[in-house]
Amino acid sequence: MRQIKIFVADDHPIVRNGIKSIFADEEGYSIVGEADDGLKAFQGVSAKQPDVAILDISMPELDGILVTERIKKEFPYIKVIVLSMHQSRQYAVDAFRAGASGYILKGGEVDEVLLAVRNVMAGQIYVSPPLVNEIMSDFLGIIKGEQSLDPINCLTLREKEVLQLIAEGHTTKRVAAKLFLSASTIKSYRVKIMKKLKVNDTAGLVKAALKNGLIKLE
């Protein structure tokens, strides 16, 4: 029987250990790697090539949504399950838009993680029960044209990366170094991001990043 390979990423060791313990006594599953931030998560998934990546939505460096987008772009065959404390349909919609196959709320039943992995490996979508009705309402709203496009969704993947790093307090020079770009390029991105989000200062960028889960308050 082929082992289903799983990669776990969460900035809290207790959560990672909890997820690993779920699969420790289950036959047919193997934890092949773990990470405590988004950048390490993407690098680890790239190296280990798991069947399923379980990602916390709020992590340093890159959040779970951005990591999901990167993974699905480079490795579309890898299933992604987003683990979140946010019981808001917008976070779930963003996760699925990025390419996730599952969205699990933290604080739910322990066995839910195992159930989600089984579902996504069977080609299905998994959503924590408390969010099912909200997701459907959101979906129906889109069909009826009742919802406007959130400005954050107008940002490119790179723009979201720049926004997250700026909101985390990194200087232009530091952001440029992290993304292997020039300082002038980062400044250009900053102007574009502010225009798209219709904000005028760093405080506005931080507020937008917080609202959309790109960063979190400690």
CATH topology of the largest domain: Rossmann fold
C-alpha geometry: globular
Give the integer mean of the pLDDT values: 86
Provide the CATH top-level class of the largest domain: Alpha Beta
Strand order of the main beta sheet, please? 2-1-3-4-5-6
What CATH architecture label of the largest domain applies? 3-Layer(aba) Sandwich
The first-to-last residue Cα distance is: 43 Å
What is the N-to-C succession of helices and strands? EHEHEHEHEHEHHHHH
Total count of strands = 6
- How much is the radius of gyration in Å? 18 Å
Domain count: 2
Tally of helical runs: 10
Structural class: alpha/beta
Beta-strand portion reads: 5-15%
Q: How would you sum up the major sheet?
A: 6 strands, parallel
Question: Summed up, what is this model?
Answer:
The chain is α/β, with parallel strands linked by helices and 218 residues long.
Task: Give an account of the 3D structure.
This protein has helices spanning 13-24, 38-48, 64-74, 89-98, 111-121, 129-143, 157-167, 172-179, 183-197, 202-211; strands at 4-9, 29-35, 52-56, 79-84, 102-105, 126-127. The chain has 218 residues and is an alpha/beta fold. The chain has two domains: 4-143, Response regulator (Rossmann fold, 3-Layer(aba) Sandwich); 151-211, Arc Repressor Mutant, subunit A, CATH 1.10.10.10. Helix 3 links the parallel strand 3 and strand 4 (79-84). Helix 2 runs parallel beside helix 3 (64-74) and helix 7 packs across helix 9. The radius of gyration is 18 Å and the shape is globular.
